[in-house]
Write a structure and sequence with these properties.
Shape of chain A: globular
Radius of gyration of chain A: 28 Å
Largest sheet of chain B: none
Structural class of chain A: alpha/beta
Number of strands of chain B: 0
Number of helices of chain B: 6
Distance between the termini of chain B: 14 Å
Structural class of chain B: mainly alpha
Number of strands of chain A: 9
Number of helices of chain A: 12
CATH class of the largest domain in chain A: Alpha Beta
CATH topology of the largest domain in chain A: Rossmann fold
Shape of chain B: flat
Largest sheet of chain A: 6 strands, parallel
Number of domains of chain A: 3
Strand content of chain A: 5-15%
Strand order of the largest sheet of chain A: 6-5-4-7-8-9
Largest interface: A-B, 70 and 64 residues
Oligomer: heterodimer
Distance between the termini of chain A: 32 Å
Helix content of chain A: 55-70%
CATH architecture of the largest domain in chain A: 3-Layer(aba) Sandwich
Chain lengths: ~325, ~200
């Protein structure tokens, strides 16, 4: 089928024999109204076929016009990689559910989470949680919200105030929902205070100035910086340090990790941050996915060694397989 | 000296006053910055999103499909009404679901595959051996299924060593760039504001 789309309509060479001129603005409503009108079965079948032709031709025109490619051979490796990940993660989730519990190694930063919540309770001071500058579609923000859920449950049990200033309005909404649900789960829905989870600003340094001010005025006993952080990481962590707060930080931004390591009591490095929610909740679903990812790391390690050996021998097929 | 330079200099000094302790001048600058930035971003959102992506397509071009994201956006405002607040979850689910769908394959390609390719260099070069060793030992640190004991423990320790090298290097590099920012502010105060240096 050959399609040449002009500006207002499209000329379609259908099965190399018939040529229709379809104006999508006029034809579609006409076909639909034909179907709904009182007419005999033959007429309705004709209209239905016309409608199908319209859809096929219109979609093919769109394809030709925009040169949509459904499969990019350069990304075959990516497709296989995602498929293997899905199989491993699902496999371990099913295994975890069947077995009941899966174990992962201890993560010091997360073991300190109970201590952090307990400390704030004993001191009668609030806990400050910041997910940083990430928008909701960022993986680190999603991980941050997962951790917030389990931490908020503990906080609700101790009835400790929780302050969450946010950079993004959507994250604010999600954080409110997550904390509300956690407080309900813990059996203390009445302790949930929506006014403590609020949007500040979408200006990076405006946000930092506000959070610094909150830290100095509210004097939280514990600061949790878990999410996406950029140049503001050291400013936040240093201010928190100056008020004597116990600080736990975690981010996927490798450059900012160095600042958190220097200024915070505990830092979740890289993937520890993503493993945190599974570690805290002991949920077989999350633990299963962590186990699946562990095996993926094993495969990656083996492939790197194999790829290096093949490269040394002059074969680059493994590197080429991974795409451009 | 123009009025803009004077205001900028005063606000810079207000913010610097935080180094001493929290005070009314810092609070003023903080509230001003937060307030102005929120107002600015609201205007930017309306100008770059609501008007060109919703109002114009719907009312000028008659593209009713654009009403769907408009309605989803409107659902977010229903959070003000507790009985209808559940509708905002539809919008949130779409953003989180679509965000994960778009970002996960992109991250796999850009971070995992790119790193793997860069680590598969020929072992004829000592640099490539070090890179491969660093990647594999660092990966072993993030292996959560087993405690870091025995061979895995040794490998993880080597991985931590490589990570600390990286953190040290990035710390030094970033501190240098921050000092550059401080020098820029000092030059502004001493040059543009006070006129002591040129």
């Amino acid at each position: 089928m050959e399609c040449i789309p002009p500006v207002a309509g499209c000329s379609i060479h259908w099965m190399h024999s018939k040529t229709f001129f379809l104006d999508k603005q006029v034809l579609f409503p006409t076909l639909v109204s034909n179907l709904s009108r009182r007419m005999n079965l033959k007429g309705k079948i004709r209209s239905l076929i016309s409608l199908l032709v319209f859809f096929v031709s219109f979609s093919s025109t769109a394809l030709a016009a925009e040169e949509v490619r459904w499969f990019d051979p350069q990304k075959t490796g990516l497709l296989i990689g995602i498929f293997i990940t899905i199989v491993l993660v699902f496999g371990f989730i099913l295994y975890g559910k069947k077995k009941g519990s899966l174990k992962i190694r201890s993560i010091p930063g997360l073991e300190a989470m109970d201590e952090a919540v307990g400390r704030a309770t004993e001191m009668g001071k609030p806990i400050l949680f910041s997910s940083g500058l990430g928008k909701m579609e960022r993986v680190a923000t999603m991980a941050s919200m997962n951790i917030l859920g389990s931490v908020a449950e503990k906080i609700a049990e101790y009835n400790t105030p929780l302050i969450i200033p946010n950079y993004d309005p959507m994250v604010t909404t999600v954080a409110q929902e997550v904390v509300k649900e956690s407080f309900s789960k813990a059996g203390h829905p009445e302790s949930f205070k929506q006014e403590n989870i609020y949007f500040v600003t979408q200006s990076q340094f405006g946000y930092v100035a506000a959070v610094d001010g909150i830290m100095l005025r509210e004097k939280p006993a514990t600061n949790l910086f878990l999410g996406t952080f950029e140049a503001e990481s050291l400013i936040l962590a240093e201010t928190g340090n100056s008020i004597g707060a116990l600080q736990i930080a975690g981010t996927d931004s490798t450059i900012q990790l160095s600042f958190f390591i220097v200024a915070c009591d505990y830092t979740l490095i890289g993937e520890e941050f993503f493993a945190a929610s599974g570690y805290l909740t002991k949920d077989p679903l999350v633990l299963g996915s962590i186990k699946g990812q562990d095996f993926l790391k094993l495969i990656i390690g083996i492939l790197i060694i194999a790829g290096g050996i093949f490269s040394t021998l002059g074969y680059n097929f493994l590197i080429n397989f991974l795409g451009k | 000296m123009d009025l803009g330079t004077l205001i900028a200099a005063i606000l810079t000094l207000f913010i610097f006053s935080f180094l001493y302790k929290d005070n009314p001048f810092y609070k003023f600058a903080e509230y001003l910055l937060v307030g102005i930035s929120v107002g600015y971003f609201i205007v930017i959102s309306i100008k770059t999103t609501v008007v060109p992506k919703l109002i114009f397509p719907v009312f000028r071009e008659g593209d009713l499909l654009c009403l769907i994201p408009g309605i989803l956006g409107f659902f977010m405002f229903l959070r003000f009404f507790p009985k209808l607040a559940w509708l905002s979850r539809i919008s949130m689910a779409l953003i989180i679901g679509a965000g994960a769908g778009v970002s996960i394959p992109a991250m796999m390609q850009a971070q995992i595959f790119a790193q793997m390719k860069a680590s598969m260099g020929s072992y004829a070069s000592i640099n490539n051996i070090i890179v491969a060793l660093a990647v594999i030992t660092t990966l072993s640190y993030f292996f959560f299924s087993r405690e870091h004991k025995g061979a895995l423990g040794t490998s993880a320790k080597i991985g931590v060593f490589f990570m600390m090298l990286f953190f040290g290097a990035t710390f030094g590099y970033t501190v240098m760039s921050r000092v550059t920012l401080l020098i820029g502010r000092a030059q502004f105060l001493l040059g543009d504001f006070l006129g002591i240096i040129k």
